[in-house]
Amino acid sequence: MFRRALVLLLLALGAAAAASPEVLRLDADSFEPAVASRPFVAVAFVAPWCAHCKRLEPEWRAAASKLAARGRNIALATLDATAGDANAALAARHDVRGFPSIRIFRDGDPKSAEEYVGPRAADGVVATLERLEAKAETFINTKRDAEAFVKAKPVVVLGVFDGERDAPLARAFGAAARAFADDPDAPDDVSVPFGVVASAAAVPETDSFFGEERKVRRGDVLIYREFETRVERFRFEHLAEKNASRDERKDALLSFVSLRATPRVAALTRDPRSRSVLRRVFAHPGPKVIGFADDESTRREMAETMARVAEEEEKEHISKPDTSGAGDAPTTRARFVVGVAAENANALRFFDVDPERLPAVVIHDTRTDARYVLRDASGADALAEWLAAFRAGTLAPTVRSAGDETSGATPPEAEAAPSAASAAILVAKGFRDAVAGAEAPAVTLIQFHAPWCGHCESFAPTYNAVAAAFRDDRDARVVTFDADANDVPDARFDVKGFPAVRLYRKADDSVHAYEGARTTKALIEFVRKHVGVGSGGDARRGERGDDGEL
C-alpha cells in the first residue's frame, strides 16, 4: 500500500512539473487576452524544428521559475509561429523573421512590441528582463525633491501625471524614458533623467515657460536646462485629435527631448556631471562657440549672453533642421560652451587665447580646424553679429604665428635663415604667399618641426645641406616651420609627428609627403622630381647634369 501511494505521489508531482504554469503556451487566440492582463510579458516565437529553439526551451523554463520565485511580475511565454496561418500572421505582424525571436510587451498592450536583444541562458534572461522591467523614470513626491532632481543634471525631463487618470500619457512618457536610455543610436553617455510628479503643485518654480500659457497642467512634460531660467514644455494634446498610439506619443516626445538633450550653453568644467554633455557637444559636427571667463561671476554673465544667442540658433535649426548630414555646411547649428579660463589651461593653449586678455570667445570651425577669437565678448548683439559674419564667410580666422601678437599683416616672404648654412624660417603669417604667391618658387620643401623634438635636432644638418643646395635656385626653396609655435595653415600637410617633410607644388596647388630616406641626396632628388612638373622640368634637370648632382 505504501509503495503504491508513493508511486501515485511521484506521478502526481511529475504531472504537476510537466504542467508547470511558469511558461505560458500561447496561440493566436490566447495571445491578446494573455498580454492584456499582464504588465510585462516576454514572448518567444518558436518553431518545433528549430535547434536554437530547443536549446532555449529549458533555459526559458528555468528563467520563468527563477522570476516566479523572486516574486517578479514578469511573465514568460512561447508561441509556435508555424502552427497555423493565424499564428504565422501574428508572428509576421511583430516582424518575426527567424527563430527563436523574443518580443517584449508592456502595460497590457498587445500591439506594441520591443525586440529582446540579450543573453539566452537562464541567468542572463532573468537579469536582462529585470533591468528592462524596471522603471526608467524616477517618481518624485515633494516639491523639495523635485527641486533637487532638476538641479542634479545639466538637462532634466519632468512629467506631470496624476495616477490612473493620466495612465496612457504616463506610459508613453515611461516608454520614451526607456528608449532614450537604451537606444544604441542615442548620444554616447548622455544621461538625461526622466522624473514624474503627481501634481503641478510639486513642480519647481521657474521664471517663465516657453509659450504664452505659463500655468503648469497635468500631462505637461517640462525640460530644464542648465543656465536657463525658462523651461520648455511638451504637451501630448496635439496628438489627441490624431488618436495617436502609445508608440506615436513616445516617438513625438523622444524627438522633442532629443533635440534638446544638451543645454544651450554647456559648462566647460571638471565637474563629472558635465563630461557626458561635453562629449556630446564636441562630437557634434557643427562649429563650437567657446567662451573663456576670468572668474565664476563673469562665466555666468557670459553664459546668459550666449544662451540668448543659442536660443535663436536652436529655434532656427528646429524649424529648419540641418540637411548637410555630415555637418559640412557653414549653416550647421553651432554649439555653445563657457568656462573659467584658470580651470581650462589646456583649452586656452589649444585655442591660442591670451589669459591676460579675458573674457574672450572662440569659434572653432571643425570643418577646417580654423579658429576665430573675439576679444570683445560683451553683449549678445556683438556675439550674434560675429557668428553671422562667420557664417557669411567674411570673418578672418585667427592664426597663431611665431613672434606675432595680433592678427594683421601678411609678410610675402619667409624670414631669412639665421645663417647661410640653415634653411629659411617660415611662419604662419604669410605662409600662403610664401609658397603660392606671385614671387613664390615652383616648389617649396617644408620641414615641420618642434623645438623639443630630438629627431628634428638630429635631422637638422641633413636638412640644412639640402637648403644650401637650393640656396640660389629660382625654382625651389627649402624652409623650416615650427609647428609648435605656429598653426599649420593647411590641413593637407597632415602633420601628425616630427619632423614631417612636405613639398608644396605651386603649378597645381598640390601637397606631397616625403617618405624616402633621410639623406641629402634622396631629398635633393625628391625636390628636383617635382620642380617644373608640366612646365619644362626635364630641361632644367638636364641643365644640372644627368648624374643628379648640382
Written account of the structure:
This protein has 17 helices and 21 strands. It has 550 residues and is an alpha/beta fold. It has a 6-stranded mixed β-sheet with strand order 6-8-7-10-11-9. A 5-stranded mixed β-sheet has the order 1-3-2-4-5, sandwiched between helices. A 5-stranded mixed β-sheet has the order 12-14-13-15-16, sandwiched between helices. A hairpin with a 4-residue loop joins strand 10 (220-225) and strand 11 (230-235). It is elongated and about 95 Å long.
Evaluate the radius of gyration: 34 Å
Fourth CATH level, the homologous superfamily of the largest domain: Glutaredoxin
Q: How many helical elements?
A: 17
Mean pLDDT: 80
Helix content: 25-40%
**Poorly predicted segments:** 1-20, 184-189, 319-330, 405-418, 534-550
InterPro entries: Thioredoxin-like_sf, Thioredoxin_CS, Thioredoxin_domain
Pfam families: Thioredoxin (PF00085)
Family: Belongs to the protein disulfide isomerase family.
Protein name: protein disulfide-isomerase
What's the topology here?
Layout: H1 2-18, E1 23-26, H2 28-36, E2 40-46, H3 51-69, E3 75-80, H4 85-93, E4 101-106, E5 113-115, H5 122-133, E6 137-140, H6 143-151, E7 155-160, H7 167-182, E8 194-197, E9 208-209, E10 220-225, E11 230-235, H8 237-240, H9 246-259, E12 265-267, H10 272-283, E13 288-293, H11 296-319, E14 335-340, H12 345-351, E15 360-365, E16 370-374, H13 380-392, E17 424-426, H14 431-436, E18 443-449, H15 454-469, E19 476-482, E20 500-505, E21 510-513, H16 520-530, H17 537-544
Parallel strand pairs: 1-3, 2-3, 6-8, 7-8, 9-11, 12-14, 13-14, 17-19, 18-19
Antiparallel strand pairs: 2-4, 4-5, 7-10, 10-11, 13-15, 15-16, 18-20, 20-21
Helix pairs in contact: 3-5, 7-9, 11-13, 15-16
